[in-house]
Amino acid sequence: MTVTAGILGATGAVGQRLIQLLEPHPDFELVTLTASDASAGHPYRDVAKWRIDAPIPETIAEMTVRRTDPDDIPDDIDLLFSSLPSDVGKRVEPELCEAGYVVSSNSSNDRTAPDVPLTIPEVNAGHLDVLEVQREERGWDGALVKNPNCSTITMVPTLAALDSFGIEQIHVSTLQAVSGAGYSGVSSMEIIDNAIPHIGGEEQKMEAEACKLLGAFDGREINWHEADVAASCNRIPTIDGHLENVWVETRDEITTEDAAAAMRSYESLDLHSSPDPLIHVFEEPDRPQPRLDRLHGNGMAVTAGGLRETSNGVQYNCLAHNTIRGAAGASVLNGELLLRDGWL
Amino acid sequence: MTVTAGILGATGAVGQRLIQLLEPHPDFELVTLTASDASAGHPYRDVAKWRIDAPIPETIAEMTVRRTDPDDIPDDIDLLFSSLPSDVGKRVEPELCEAGYVVSSNSSNDRTAPDVPLTIPEVNAGHLDVLEVQREERGWDGALVKNPNCSTITMVPTLAALDSFGIEQIHVSTLQAVSGAGYSGVSSMEIIDNAIPHIGGEEQKMEAEACKLLGAFDGREINWHEADVAASCNRIPTIDGHLENVWVETRDEITTEDAAAAMRSYESLDLHSSPDPLIHVFEEPDRPQPRLDRLHGNGMAVTAGGLRETSNGVQYNCLAHNTIRGAAGASVLNGELLLRDGWL
Amino acid sequence: MTVTAGILGATGAVGQRLIQLLEPHPDFELVTLTASDASAGHPYRDVAKWRIDAPIPETIAEMTVRRTDPDDIPDDIDLLFSSLPSDVGKRVEPELCEAGYVVSSNSSNDRTAPDVPLTIPEVNAGHLDVLEVQREERGWDGALVKNPNCSTITMVPTLAALDSFGIEQIHVSTLQAVSGAGYSGVSSMEIIDNAIPHIGGEEQKMEAEACKLLGAFDGREINWHEADVAASCNRIPTIDGHLENVWVETRDEITTEDAAAAMRSYESLDLHSSPDPLIHVFEEPDRPQPRLDRLHGNGMAVTAGGLRETSNGVQYNCLAHNTIRGAAGASVLNGELLLRDGWL
Amino acid sequence: MTVTAGILGATGAVGQRLIQLLEPHPDFELVTLTASDASAGHPYRDVAKWRIDAPIPETIAEMTVRRTDPDDIPDDIDLLFSSLPSDVGKRVEPELCEAGYVVSSNSSNDRTAPDVPLTIPEVNAGHLDVLEVQREERGWDGALVKNPNCSTITMVPTLAALDSFGIEQIHVSTLQAVSGAGYSGVSSMEIIDNAIPHIGGEEQKMEAEACKLLGAFDGREINWHEADVAASCNRIPTIDGHLENVWVETRDEITTEDAAAAMRSYESLDLHSSPDPLIHVFEEPDRPQPRLDRLHGNGMAVTAGGLRETSNGVQYNCLAHNTIRGAAGASVLNGELLLRDGWL
Question: Which residues are in the Semialdehyde dehydrogenase NAD-binding domain (chains A, B, C, D) (predicted)?
């Protein structure tokens, strides 16, 4: 039985990736697209400035875009994927959940709310059960699940793999692609022959979300991980793929061999969009690189390399495709988890 | 009285910057250029692929290039600036010092030798006196002084400014420009829409050189600073200007105001190429940026910004022009210090 | 005696270049800056997102921005430089001229109007006298003079130099920098690892403006040149500097030596901002290049190279700095011409 | 029955693309790889700096590289694909053909020799029969077929489509990707924030090859097309995909509708690598663009757009993937043609 799905905010960069991933998806049938009022009522083809290097799927191109409004969304949609701007998401997503819809959202609002699961399925699928608390406390028939920020998703699988050594401190420096800011987020005059050492709120997001993701759910509450996380975020002139330099300080001794083995053996899930292995560790010291490695595992794998021992842990580099594993693919994967665990 | 000067390895990227800085220099008269045997005997114009965005100075363009060989260098040169490949420098520089020449070198060989001063004049001018040990031990009439690696120079002035708070640990992530690898060091296919998280030996250079630079000279020996330094180096698609994310853990408590004040009030020197102030601290959170800020202080200033308090210190970003402050200008400045302190 | 000057639209990319050129200018004293209503009333520093790689001049930084409205502009301004969006220029510039102001404008409106001089001073200074017709017909006390589009300016000096051979046909293909579209004109996602073979209306502007510029003024009318011009315009990932491939078909026979000699000997003017020579012709076949050559003559020279004979003329490449010679500097130069010829 | 195939010069940029295309090819079985003497004897994985954004096929990675020498190539190879440097190709290819091998070559040597077919199968498959003349005159058992230069291939299908209107003159300006120069052909310092209006010999190649390709084979000789072709070639900062601005002057009148219809209906072939349609014509005025459109038809289609009428013909833009349709894919397609026509 197919699950009917819709996309909230279907014209933006993440919305377009959602279409690319959902159109051929075996479990979901994409039947509804919403966008701003200005776009509503028009065929998708006419209002989306399609910027993916493959054509718009024909069936999608002709779909009429709807308003991002509970009244304009059909009742029989099983699952809504949300890539709304966070201010819109903050307002609309709770309305939709109250109206009974299940929402898998990439928007940054409510990610750290105690009763909202923030999940990377291969890392903390168990957190999904906080939805029971959510329904109980909010009186919703629907449900709201979030995926983390793209820069957080890139590093967290590697951290989860290393946490058996007892992570105490994390330093992370990011080299982020321009697509993370949306189609008009970074102007060419800002970034050609340049780098920008600031992305508003990004460092705070990474520091908080990582601790929530690595935390333990005790049946009622998610107890955040107590590692000290310090992030420094940079935008560089790459199209797709966030590269990160990570230092991890651990309670137990750890060698580069230990770290590589832990990453390589970290288990993936048997979900349609989960790659196997989840983390690919390069031997070559100059990998991963954004242009060469962002499409590993169809853009859903995390790649790592450059492992070195430090005085109290290890350092390494990791990379993921920011609009696939880091955004659209993350939401789709959460949708697959919702389906597997019986929430749809 | 003018000091006569020569450049060893004058055709490369750093050699060209040396020409640009020395030709109008009030203290030095550029009279000799050397290059590889293949270039020797030809006018500079014909063998240098000039790639600076200002014309070759006319008088330089017509100079005949000499071999990089003590026999081919006039005896009456007071000071040689070296931008030789390190394997050539390792062989030729000691020969020249033995033959009585004073060499201010940007090459990476011998930087950590105990009796070779590694200096950033505004930071550790006093280390120059280790030249007495050098002459005594090596029996040289000449002298060899080194400037650090471009990525080390970028951060060390800010670290020196903060060391009154007792630096215990440093994490640094670099976003380095392609010019640091020389004209053909990074191919366009490697770096367009990409970043490379590896520069051979660079992390080790930063970790060692920073401790030597911040060390104390006791009249006989340079006692290296004991801070724990962990560096992660990346190449990104910028032409000039190395940007760095730095975390400093200090013994004493430090606020962002303390850190900014310490940087702003860190003293410069009264040398021709020293900027005043040495460190410019931005209020804007998104600065410094390579393209906008690399020419601060004629490319000799360090700029900083993005200060944030962490659990045990501060984090910030800093930037310097890698082929001016980080290479050619660093050698010239060391030449000015040699002149001021009576070594010429 | 100094001429007091103002800038209409001072916060944009061209407005910032105007400030950079006018602040140290010996003839003009910059006393007024205007911008949109949202910016009016604030210090320039706070409303301009300054993006030039040199600091804002201090005196300018503190100036209070005014509204772009005749009522808000002081009466005693001698000359207004306009870098308004063309729809605003179309409305406001005639109002200002009617109110008695002399306006040197870079905006694209009214460039091909018969009684509006469109001038590159070194090429067609004589066209300025059509201002008498303008005042007569429009009943203005002020005056409106225009400079051409940046892509037109780049090629026209070389065409003027070759026109003694009788130009009959011109093909031109442009490789234009992103700054030509303003700070937010081209998003990074559109242009990294890409080129866009379309700039709305640009080809038509080049085709029309070139014929007007190369035309003859007979005392009453500007008789447009009858050459057939075909332009193809492209945006590429460069910051500044428009590069153009030009083919010229001439009535008379022409060799590459003829063409180079004609360009090199083409006369410049004795105006402050005019470079001498106006056109620099390279011998090297791979020049001019945007990054290396855009600052020739302080950004006011045109550079050319790559001359080849074709079956019926010559082909070559030319380049100019699009926001200096192609925009802000062009307006300033027209201001200098207005001053020299007694219109101020 | 499978055709056994080898690659001459398998480690370079085009060699890697050949591997990517041949490894899954239904007609060819890749059994031999050659490279320079320095690489011979080593596993391919160890000597190729693999730079395609998909992993090296496992079976290929372990193959031992051979010397590019007739003595080191197995006798039972049916077809050799050559991506040798042209000076090596000039020497080695005739030796191999004399030794009985059939060679489909991308190297630039011998492309304009009268008895060497230069083919784009969809355009001039019939030229292949000049191989009879070649064998007769040279006494070869083998055969040598060439594909054109990448910049020539990009435009010729569109020209062939328009030639029913009688092409008399062609002007073409190219915006070429860096991969066309091989992995180390263009340094990053040459091309970031820059464009280079010169590619040695490229303009002459385009002018000659286009006339040969569009010529008619009369059974003995290829009579070159008499159109006057003028090319201007530029390198820009894109990774893959050559974009070209073309003006065509025709004997008969032609509208943009005529031109679009002729391109759209131009027939493709029923060969494995031929796309259908061969030419995709965009309605959107700002397409084709390298990053968005280079993978049309798996990188084998030509895309066109921006049609405008001129005084004596039409102008338009066209694009093709330079290392697939323009090089490796072109050689593979010629191999498919050789197979179809019974030369293997």
Answer: 4-131
pTM over cut 0.90:
yes
Name the residue type at position D292. L
What SS3 state is found at A301? Answer: coil
Distance CA C331, CA C324 (A): 9
Whether residue A1 is predicted with pLDDT greater than 80 in this model: the reply is: no
Instruction: For chain C, positions 285-314, list CB contacts with chain D under 8 A.
Output: 285-292, 305-306, 308, 310-311
CA-nearest residue to D235 within chain B is B188
What is the C-alpha to C-alpha distance for residues D65 and D58, in angstroms, rounded to an integer? 14
Rounded Cα distance, A55 and A57, in Å: 6
The two tokens of residue C232 are 């193809």
Residue C85, preceding peptide bond in cis (omega within 30° of 0) = no
Crossing angle of helices B150-162 and B256-264, in 10° steps, is 110
* C-alpha to C-alpha distance for C209 and C201, rounded to whole angstroms: 12
Please report the residues numbered 110 through 129 in chain B whose beta carbons come closer than 8 angstroms to any beta carbon of chain A: none
Beta strand ranges found along C68-215 (DSSP E): 79-82, 102-105, 143-146, 167-176
Question: Which residue shows structure tokens 């085009």?
Answer: D14
- E strand or H helix at A167, and its extent? strand A167-176
pLDDT in tens, chain C (344 residues): 689 999 999 999 999 999 999 999 999 999 999 999 999 999 999 999 888 888 899 999 999 999 999 999 999 999 999 999 999 999 999 999 999 999 999 999 999 999 999 999 999 999 999 999 999 999 999 999 999 999 999 999 999 999 999 999 999 999 999 999 998 899 999 999 999 999 999 999 999 999 999 999 999 999 999 999 999 999 999 999 999 999 999 999 999 999 999 999 999 999 999 999 999 999 999 999 999 999 999 999 999 999 999 999 999 999 999 999 999 999 999 999 999 999 99
Interchain contact, C291 vs B193, CB within 8 Å:
no
* Residue with token string 């035309």: C215
Q: Which of B320, B153, B148, B166 is nearest to B254 (CA)?
A: B166
Contacts of B228 (CB under 8 A, 6+ apart): A311, B168, B169, B170
The yes-or-no verdict on residue D1 having pLDDT over 80 is no
Q: Which amino acid is at D277?
A: P
Which amino acid type is present at position D2?
T
Question: Cα(A228)–Cα(A207) distance, rounded to whole angstroms?
Answer: 8
Q: CA torsion C52→C54→C57→C58, rounded to 10°? A: 120
Name the token pair of B292: 């906008």
Closest CA to A242 of A303, A333, A184, A328: A303
Minimal CA separation from D206 to chain B, in Å = 24
Flag if B13 and D191 touch (Cβ within 8 Å): no
Residue B12 Rama label (left phi>0; alpha psi -120 to 50; beta): beta
Coil vs helix vs strand at A239: coil
Structure tokens that stand for C62 in this block: 């503190």
- Put simply, whether C240 touches B (Cβ < 8 Å) is no
Residue B5 structure tokens: 């000067």
Domains of chain C, with CATH numbers?
3-148+327-340 (3.40.50.720), 150-321 (3.30.360.10)
- The position carrying tokens 């510029």 is C213
